[in-house]
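ok so i was messing around last nite and threw this chain in just to see what happens. nothing serious, just curious
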Amino acid sequence: MKRLLLFSGAMLFATVARGQTVRQSTQITPNEFQAQVQRELSQVPAGAELYRLCDAFSRKINYLASRAIELRSKVTSEFEVSSSQDTTLEGDISKSPVDEDEPSIAINRRDARLMVAGANDRMMDSLSMPAYLTTNAGLSWKTYRLPKVNDQGAGSWGDPMIISDNSGTFYYSFLLIDMNQPRGVSDLMVAHSTDGKTWTLGRPVVGNTLDSTGMEDKETIAIDNDLRSPHYGRLYIAWTEYKYSDTASSYMETHLLAYSDNKGATWSKPIQYTQNYGYFALLHVGKFGTVVIASMSNYDSTIGAAGLSISTDGGTNFTDVRIASFTNFPLNMTGRCGLKGDNGFRATPYPCFDLDTANKIYAVYGSYDENNGDAALYETTSTDLGQTWSDSVQIGSPGGLYNDHYMPWVNVDPITQQVYISMSSSEEDTVLNVKSRAVWCHYQTPGQLKDMGSRLFNTLDVNISGDDFLGDYAGSDAYDGFYAASWTENRPMNYRDGEIFAYVSAPLSAYSVGAVRQINGSQFDAGNVSPNPASGNSVSVTISSSEERNASIRVFNLKGSEVLSSNAQVLPSDANPVTLDIHSLPAGVYHVLITSGADVINRNLVILR
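result:
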């Protein structure tokens, strides 16, 4: 069962009055805006350089410029937003007249029907970061906000990244920045929540003060979910820090990593994890707690390399390995790499990846095909932590390889081991190569792209502050047969503001709880196997029924052979826990079949030894 979901809506150049009516404000020309940007940059040493290098700083300067010329909608406490407003399939989650981009989405590891998404929006600095919550695998959504942050004048400033640990706790990372002046405090923070509604803020990761000169940018997080790891439960964060050097009269960047063993309440001292790569980092933790970071060797040079930084000792020491070389996207009129011509949007051929339970790496990287003038994506795998790689395979339909494919994300379902790739594709716009659609494919079939239900939309219609912008990334997640992907496109009916959409694919049985059911009808359901993955001697599953009945639990290996069975008497209750003794089963992926009469429930189990 698949659902296309509209998260959020906005009107660019909108002003919200006290009565919450929306009116069109005066249009500002790009020249006026760029002139104000230059005024703001003149207050910062080598401001133009930092504006080009650091996304967090450039968004801040755009904000200050927009505010100075009253281009930006002034959304304050006069606009009352209810944290419990419902968003149906067609609804507007954020209920705000602002733009959204750079979405991240995570599936709960205890209940896969529970998902949380986040995004940049133009209310995040005044109200805090948004958390879009579904409890029924995407059938409906509600908007919540993280607690408001004030770290010495710095508040939340986007680049959201959301993950879940094995216990079902969500982690939500974001930038902190002082929006009241060109300089000021810059830092990072991670909040956590067990239900997606109520969030607890962690401590600032770096601990910068008013005297600090660092500008933190582009963070990524991951958690050690391997029960066999000596660092099980450790939360990692990696990012890039920019500091001005008086000697060099320019900005020096350092690629840093820190970790927390208490959900972000305290953090280790940041370390530099690479000198060869580090731009646009993406972090995952694999088998036995192996920490892997994918990134680029440079941000705006014509030629570069995608690589990995790998640690096997809990993030203390790292070794770099190369994935592949790439050609960067062309420079647009703003002096940044981008797509869709001189007036197009900023884009980066960043690498992304995930690992399966055996530490096999599934990587995707981008590169620009100068001969054909298109952005290409390639997939490659490694079974020895990047020492050797399979031959790269270009992603796309056979007849559409010469059109743009960009903004990818890779997910390995840790239970089913299915591998997914999401991306934006311009294959259908064979003439202009401008319009795009969100698509996905299985890693094993890179030539068979599947439509996620999005529209074929004009990417140049998504316009913010005089610049076309889709965000720098779009995230996805996969767990226990569920797959959720998110992306940015403009709102239907020819609006120019960015919207966050989501696609959710899930087993049909997952919707039984969220669907309408007969009150006096016979009901039979089961939760997920726990713990999962498992490394001990037993696991449990909770069965619920509206009447007394007998149930059979059978476990099969991937060859289809039954390796374990158990019977249980189920009482009319929401909690009938059944324990399975798995001490004799070897490591592997197993299928759990729970039956009672005509009712059949399928679950998966991963055993680690």
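not much to say yet. The domain at 2-509 is CATH 2.120.10.10 (Neuraminidase).
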